[in-house]
């Protein structure tokens, strides 16, 4: 059997992406610098995106507990999201 490889450098860099749900039940991904992220319809898509963007580095993606409400923050406004949030208004 093969051995598991521990990559100390990846863990030293810490968490790059956080995955959780917003108040409307959408899955949210945000990076630690607030530069990359998005809204997703399901957890699998959100985690896939975060893992892909972090080059599958161990420990780079953290999923917050279900009881925590997560948001993209003040940078993302209703107007910026436009039709993605389902308001029916044009951006």
Please, could you describe this protein's structure?
With 91 residues, this protein is an alpha+beta fold. The protein has a domain at 8-69. It has three helices and four strands; from the N terminus they run αβββαβα. Strand 1 and strand 2 (27-31) form a beta hairpin. The radius of gyration is 15 Å and the shape is globular.
Please give the structural blueprint.
Blueprint: H1 8-13, E1 17-21, E2 27-31, E3 37-40, H2 43-53, E4 61-63, H3 78-81
Parallel strand pairs: 1-4
Antiparallel strand pairs: 1-2, 2-3
Describe this protein with a few key phrases.
disordered C terminus, alpha+beta, 91 residues, single chain, four-stranded mixed sheet, disordered N terminus, 3 helices
The Cα radius of gyration reads: 15 Å
H/E series, N to C?
HEEEHEH
Instruction: Give the mean pLDDT.
Output: 75
Helix content: 10-25%
Structural class comes to alpha+beta
Give the CA-based shape: globular
- Please indicate the percent range of residues in DSSP E strands (runs of 2 or more): 15-25%
The major sheet is characterized as: 4 strands, mixed
Strand numbers in spatial order across the main sheet: 3-2-1-4
- The separation of the N and C termini measures 55 Å
Q: Low-confidence runs (pLDDT<50, min 5 residues)?
A: 1-12, 84-91
Q: Work out the number of β strands.
A: 4
SS field, number of helical segments: 3
